[in-house]
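Thread: Newbie trying to understand structure tokens

Hi all, I'm a second-year student working on a class project, and my supervisor (Dr. K.) asked me to get a predicted structure for one chain before our next meeting. I've only ever worked with sequences, so writing a 3D structure as a token string is new to me. If someone could post the tokens and maybe explain what I'm looking at, I'd be very grateful. Here's the chain:
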Amino acid sequence: MLTLEFEAPGWYTKRPHGAYTGQEWSMHKDFDQYLQPTDIIDSDHPEVAGYAQKLAPNPGDAPGDRAVRLYYGVRDPIWYDPYLPFYKPEHYRASRTLKNGRAFCIGKATLLCALGRASGIPARLGFADVRNHLATKQLLEFLGSDLFSYHGFVEFYLDGKWVKATPAFNIELCRRHKVIPLEFDGKSDSIFHAFNREKKMFMEYVDDHGTFADVPVERIVAGWRQAYGKERVQRWISEYEQPDATYRRKFDQEDVAPT
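---
Reply by user tm_fold:
Sure, no problem. This is what the structure looks like when written as tokens:
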């Protein structure tokens, strides 16, 4: 049996299981789950693996530099769209997000996580509730709240620590909302700014749901039912289940809500 051995920050090589002490095996087994593909984080999908190779083709580059290239390969090319199905595992699948070119925060985080794993960089998902003070009028009406339950982001293991990366909002969307786009340098946490360019409240972190090796779909849906109401969430699901469902609203053209 083989596992993965940590030799330099962000890079792993094969080593026989029996060569580890108990403590070493526990640590390396822990990291192994953040490198493996899942049905949702399908880092072994040819299109996902190929995109990771296209974004960061040189395996000799530092893991942090590669992670930065992966981040920008998701933040802007994949547009943020909150009006997509959310209640099945396949709705979050990385290869699906890559193909569609649109996703809300969890789908974009899942794709970035898959790209990291495809590149040999340990990656996991984190979730938090955030209060969005600069959403659109239409989205606030749709949610019935300014609370974004289970906002998703990524954590890469780089230089001996977990570093947060938040690829949710593409640069065009940030410009419309007069928000500074989130940059990522592979060294420091990249999380939402509290204020926009006009010093108005933008994003407020409310609750931390922890980190996961895979997308906890059932937990997310349960969290949404609690945050937005069972009837509202069931109505969304029913609408998406209609054979002629037209859920593609034009979020990028909606009215920015006044503060």
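A couple of things are worth pointing out once you decode it. The first helix runs from residue 22 to 32. The longest strand covers residues 147-158. Feel free to ask follow-ups in this thread.
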